[in-house]
Write a structure and sequence with these properties.
By secondary structure, the chain is α/β, with parallel strands linked by helices. It folds into three domains: about 45 residues, no CATH class; about 100 residues; about 150 residues, Pectate Lyase C-like. Helix content is about 30%, strand content about 20%. Strand 1 and strand 2 form a beta hairpin.
C-alpha cells in the first residue's frame, strides 16, 4: 500500500477524522510507529508475513461470528463463499484461525461445517484445511462427505488426525501431511504421489493398491503397517466394489526420500522402492516380499535387522 493511499484509508476507517492535521497525525503514526516497513518508493507492507496472516485470520473469525447471527440461509452461504471461497488459505492462516476458535469456542467452526456441501469448491478446500488443524478426526469427515468435486491438492493436511476409517479412490497427490497422526486407517486405490509425510506417525494402518511415487518421509515413524497390492477380503464390500477398484498394479515408492525414519513391524508386499534415497533410517522386524530396491542409495548410519526377505532384489549393500 502506497503512503499516498493512507489519507483516504484513514478517513474511511475513522469516520470523524476530516481535518488535514488529524489525518497527517494518523498517517505519521502508521508510517513510523507500527509494524509496517516501506521501500524507497514509499510502498508499505507488514514487517513480517505473520502479521498479515494473523489479521487475515482475525478478519475470518469476525466474519464467522457475524455469520452465526444470520438467519437467512442464502445470506450465510454468500458470506461463507466471500470469506473462504475467493482464494486458498495458507497453513499458517488456518493455524491462527484454529487458535482463535479455541480461545472463543468451536461453535463457529461447526457453523461452517454444517454448510459444507453448499459452498463453492475453494471454500470447501479451505474448510478442510482449517478442520485438519482443529483436532477432529478428518478421516471421519472425508468418509461422510463427497470429495469428488474438490481440488484436494490445494488442501493442507498438516497437523491432522486420521483414525479408524476406510478411504478409497482419492488422490492426495502432492499434499502435505506434516505432523499427522494415522492410526488404524485403511486406504484403497489412493494416490499419494509427491506427498510429504514428514514428522508424521503412521500406526497400524493399511495401504492397498496405493502409489507413493516421489513421496517424502523425513523423521517419520511407520509401525505395524501394511503396504500391499493385494486387497484382503476382510474389507471387501459388495456395495462399494467399484470404489475399491484401482489402476495401480503395485505399491510404487519409486524416487521417494526417507530420512531419519523408523520402519518397524511392517509388511511390504509387491512394492517398488527403486531409486529411493534412504538416509539414516531403520527397518526392523518387517516382512519384505516381492520388493524391488534397484538403484536405491543408502547413506548415513542405518539399521536393518530381524527382517524377513522373500523374493527381494537390488537390496543395497549397506543393508
Amino acid at each position: 500500500m502506497s503512503y499516498r493511499e493512507f489519507p483516504a484509508a484513514i478517513k474511511k476507517y475513522f469516520k470523524d477524522v476530516d481535518r488535514i492535521e488529524e489525518i497527517d497525525y494518523f498517517s505519521h503514526d502508521i508510517q513510523s510507529c507500527s509494524f509496517l516497513t516501506s521501500d524507497r518508493t514509499g510502498d508499505f507492507k507488514f514487517i513480517h508475513k505473520s502479521f498479515m496472516e494473523f489479521f487475515v485470520a482475525d478478519r475470518i473469525i469476525g466474519k464467522l461470528i457475524s455469520v452465526r447471527r444470520m438467519r437467512n440461509n442464502n445470506r450465510i452461504i454468500k458470506e461463507l463463499n466471500a470469506v473462504f471461497g475467493i482464494t486458498y488459505l495458507s497453513m499458517e492462516i488456518c493455524l491462527f484461525v484454529n487458535d482463535m476458535l479455541n480461545l472463543q469456542n468451536k461453535e463457529h467452526l461447526l457453523e461452517i461445517v454444517s454448510h459444507f456441501n453448499d459452498v463453492n469448491n475453494v471454500a470447501k478446500s479451505n474448510i478442510i484445511t482449517i478442520l485438519s488443524k482443529s483436532g477432529v478426526n478428518l478421516a471421519e469427515f472425508i468418509s461422510e462427505n463427497n470429495m469428488s468435486d474438490i481440488d484436494i491438492s490445494r488442501v493442507d493436511f498438516s497437523e491432522a488426525e486420521f483414525s479408524g476409517k476406510l478411504i478409497s479412490g482419492i488422490s492426495f497427490a502432492n499434499n502435505h501431511f506434516y505432523n499427522v497422526d494415522f492410526d488404524k486407517m485403511v486406504f484403497v486405490g489412493c494416490n499419494f504421489d509427491g506427498a510429504s509425510f514428514d514428522s508424521s506417525r503412521v500406526l497400524n494402518s493399511e495401504f492397498y493398491k496405493c502409489t507413493f511415487y516421489a513421496s517424502s518421509w523425513k523423521d517419520t515413524g511407520v509401525t505395524g503397517c501394511i503396504f500391499s497390492n493385494e486387497y484382503t477380503q476382510d474389507y471387501y464390500d459388495e456395495d462399494s466394489q467399484e470404489l475399491l477398484q484401482s489402476n495401480y498394479s503395485f505399491c510404487n515408492f519409486e524416487e521417494s526420500n526417507w530420512q531419519k525414519c523408523i520402519i518397524q513391524k511392517c509388511t511390504f508386499f509387491d512394492c517398488s522402492l527403486a531409486d529411493n534415497v534412504m538416509h539414516s533410517i531403520s527397518i526392523l522386524e518387517s516382512t519384505l516380499e516381492h520388493v524391488d530396491f534397484s538403484g536405491t542409495n543408502v547413506v548415513g548410519t542405518n539399521e536393518f535387522s530381524n527382517n524377513i526377505l522373500l523374493d527381494v532384489w537390488g537390496l543395497p549393500y549397506a543393508f
